[in-house]
Design a protein that fits this description.
By secondary structure, the protein is mainly alpha-helical. The protein contains 20 helices and 5 strands.
Length: 382
Amino acid sequence: MSLSATALLDGARAATGLDGFGDPGFREGLDVLLRALAEEAELNAIGWMAHQAQLTGYLCERLRIEDWYRRHPEIDDQKIGGPIFVTGLPRTGTTALSHLLAADPDTRSLQMWESNSPTPPPERATYATDPRIAEADARNTAFRDDPDFLRMYDGTATSPTENIDLLGQHFATQHFEGMAHVPGYIRWWLGCDMVPAYRHHERVLKLLQWRCPATRWFLKSPPDLACLDAFVAVYPNARIVWTHRDPATVLASVCKLIWIVRRMQTDHVDLHELGREQLALWSQSVQRALAFRRRVGEACFADVFMKDLVARPIETVAALYDRIALPFTAAAESAMRAWSAEHPQHKHGALPYTLEEFGLRADQVHEAFHDYAQHFDLRLER
């Protein structure tokens, strides 16, 4: 089985009755991804159907987004300002921190349902009751019914989500690798110019806030750690929050999560290959981020350590607000305390994982992340 770019493009046109995809640069990433899926991914029938649906959906949204801009060019006059952007290695508390920040009534997070389906743009009066919320929860039933996945990630349609869909609509995101083994695509992604993808990302945020204004945006995406230069080129006033945890614990956890997702879509997952690739990918991403930080300085950065977030969530967020010069209001604190009380760590039980099952050793991981651990004086977990 395989997917054809021509068939996907024609299918999106037929489904929407539209023809303008906007910036044609998205085609390079789409073509590279399709080649990797055909030659490397070893997808089963479920995997092919899932990818066909996802990629067609991204193309349909591109068409609809461009149609809204064509009919309402004033959307482009919207200003995003300086978003709060949480990034860092995956499995470092980014999800918990995201929910805490999103609880602030003065902050607008990118919610999963509007990321999946940004058109038609939401309206303030019906934002909390939009029928797309129920539709998104229905689509996620398979994941929420998987007890292993639920132990690793507990999210709903209104949860703050990552940049997966917005960058996915430009076919330039590392997230595709979480669903399938596509090393050829990842090599391309690490070398591509990400600025056009973030321009499309900004285009979608403008559309989303056009009829539903935002006081300030909150965004989150661990893979974007590798692309901070391009992100800041589009969002020069962003405040970047970098989360931290022992990389040895991180790698075991992220490999486990990827295995849980991939096993639904392929009958073959080489665990040791998965471990080697994740070690190489994330150590390179951290080196890129460190180089960027040394180049631009500390002014736009704030750091959150997962051990502090787990032990003292509200105090940690209050200190973060002080660092990024935001008022920590009583309403924000109250909402965050309520969320924290309802969502203790391992709410659905802890899922065991080890480095060894993915062919890795702690000393090997610590050596690959030596500069990172030294720079942040990380206390390695034993």
